[in-house]
Write a structure and sequence with these properties.
- By secondary structure, this protein is of the alpha+beta class.
- It has one domain: Oxidoreductase, molybdopterin-binding domain (Sulfite Oxidase, Chain A, domain 2).
- Helices cover 16% and strands 29% of the residues.
- The protein contains 4 helices and 11 strands, in the order αβββαββαββαββββ.
- The strands form 2 sheets. Strands 1, 4, 5, 8, 9 and 10 form a 6-stranded mixed β-sheet that branches.
- The radius of gyration is 16 Å and the shape is globular.
- The structure holds the ligand Nc1nc2c(c(=O)[nH]1)N[C@H]1C(S)=C(S)[C@@H](COP(=O)(O)O)O[C@H]1N2 and molybdenum atom.
- Molybdenum atom binds next to loops.
Length: 210
């Protein structure tokens, strides 16, 4: 975990400084069982909560030294991060080259300082959704809380004001309409994970269901 974290942080620092060169994209970008789409389908639980920015808050706590509750202004004052990544939905569509802007998970972790006991992260959303990831999955250079997509504020149906993006996992591991992030000393399962979806959710091994 330590070496992987340092390597991720180095890649992230190059992106932050604008020195990262566009990644040469492999020809094999489509994970097994996926098809490429150019639209952006919407998947939700039948609710699209509308959270005005002046009432938006992001609570970050649990196994951390410095728990915080961020207002929208606090969130936007954090270092802003832009990245391009591919998006894989378990319902078999993938969209390439999604341009995200927001705050890196690495920056949030630096702010709250996870305790050594923290091994997992649990996410809660305004629509009752939840999901979970190991901390080392979150501490990667392409993981962020996004407020913009393709140069414009994230539309409500895609999770605006802000959603989590974890590009190397199926998209259900990224909570839309995020409201709370809890660092945990154990794993607890989120909404789809308790309903038969894989807890590891790796698109490259077709790891869809548990
Ligand atoms: N809060 C919340 N986040 C969510 C979901 C949801 O229903 N509610 N659906 C998940 C699923 S299953 C997928 S595939 C992606 C879809 O994101 P999109 O609607 O922007 O395509 O969001 C994920 N995050
Ligand atoms: Mo999904």
């Amino acid at each position: 975990m330590k070496e992987a974290y340092i390597a991720a942080k180095e890649r992230w620092a190059r992106k932050m400084s604008g020195q990262a060169h566009a990644q040469p994209r492999s020809e094999n970008r489509l994970p097994p069982g996926q098809r490429q789409v150019t639209n952006f389908p919407v998947l939700d639980l039948g609710v699209k909560p509308e959270i005005p920015q002046d009432r938006w808050e992001l609570k970050i706590g649990g196994q951390v030294e410095n728990p915080v509750t961020l207002s929208w202004a606090d969130f936007m004052k954090l270092p802003q991060f832009k990245d391009v990544s591919d998006f894989h939905c378990v319902t078999t569509w993938s969209q390439f080259d999604m341009a995200w802007e927001g705050v890196s998970f690495l920056s949030l972790a630096e702010l709250v300082r996870p305790k050594p006991a923290a091994t997992h992260v649990f996410f809660k959303s305004h629509d009752g959704y939840s999901t979970n990831n190991p901390l080392d999955v979150m501490m990667d250079d392409d993981v962020l809380i996004a407020h913009s997509w393709n140069g414009a504020p994230l539309p409500v149906e895609h999770g605006g004001p802000a959603r989590v993006i974890v590009p190397k996992k199926y998209a259900w591991k990224g909570a839309k309409w995020i409201r709370e992030i809890t660092f945990m000393d154990r794993d607890i399962l989120g909404f789809w994970e308790v309903r038969g979806y894989s807890n590891t959710a790796d698109p490259w091994t077709d790891d869809r269901f548990s």
